[in-house]
Amino acid sequence: EYFKNHNYYGKNNPQWKGGISYEPYSPEWTPQLRNIIKERDNYLCRDPLCRQSIQTYKLMVHHIDYDKKNSNVNNLITLCPNCHSKSSHNREYHKKLYKQLLQMVQHKED
Question: Which of 19, 25, 89, 100 could pair with 29 as two cysteines, CB 3.0-4.6 Å apart?
């Protein structure tokens, strides 16, 4: 009832970031790139706190720095829809966490 009586759209939403969701993605942001990232991440949600035990969900590729124009492979990570949604909150925490995870993966590959 509380949310029905309050306007939480646009600038009134506590998660408002100045309209950045309307910015275009980089030209490199292609289905092929997203598939490369999912393959690199073994088609798994890479969030260590993920509670999805069965891989039946549609995986998403997330921009770690929240910049849709930065489609560098070192800025992209595979998440399930639930973890992708959670990453919108406490952005600095998730940015640090996902950067550390990718660094661990890169060290294993070296």
Answer: 25
Nearest residue to 42 via CA among 109, 95, 94, 93: 109
Mean pLDDT, consecutive 10-residue stretches, the chain (110 aa), reads: 53 57 84 96 91 75 95 95 91 95 76
Half-sphere exposure of 2 (CA within 13 A, CB side): 0
Is the pTM above the cut of 0.90?
A: no
Task: DSSP for 49-101, please give it.
Answer: T----S--SPPEEEETTS-TT---GGGEEEE-HHHHHHTTSSHHHHHHHHHHH
Cα-atom radius of gyration of the chain, to the nearest Å? 15
Which pair of structure tokens corresponds to residue 75? 């800025």
Confidence (pLDDT) at 1: 45
